[in-house]
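S1.2 Input.
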Amino acid sequence: MTESPADFVRTYAPLAPVAAVPEIRLHQAAEPIGLWELTEGEFRSEQPPPFWAFAWAGGQALARYLLDHPETVAGRQVLDLAAGSGLVAIAAARAGAARVRAVDIDPVAAAAVEVNAEANGVAVTGDVGDVLDGDPGGAEVVLAGDVFYSQAMARRMLRFLIRASRTGARVLVGDPERAYLPRDRFEPLAGYDIPVTVALESVPVKHSRVWELKVTPGAGGTAGRDRTG
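S1.3 Output.
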């Protein structure tokens, strides 16, 4: 890849509406294999397709929920983990969040976040890094779409989300019933049938849910927090 990350995103991933969230447009790859070959050797992930180039089912569900329930993030500091394309972060910004930070370990994803945010007329800060051993940095709402795709990632992510909850942050995730989702730790808020890329998911539609991390009394959060505000 010889272009800058931002130019690479613009060149190889055309801007198009997101299937379940047509209010938002993203730079998306038409198919995974060609783009993976272009990024081979520079992209680091446990799965071959560049995550930033696709609107994954869990992220679409979470973005849809935020736009339908803007009170969830309105006026609040938001952190989007493993942000990929920035879809969830952009939805949070459109829903009125005071500030949105989107973090991903891939520098091309961070560039995609800012390119996509610009295309949608919102401000999102795209950061590169692994924050899962740290803290949410003052975020009042922590969001994560499609992060439970491996056992190792699920364990690290859950530990971070629990720590975030103990600081008082509200924690929401979007997930299409992946094997490593720790369901006993979450309460379902909503469900959606999400159109997806068959080459990635082997099916044209995946039922995906938005989940909220259960708040443990005495853990630093507020037990019985309103689930829609």
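S1.4 Remarks. The radius of gyration is 16 Å.
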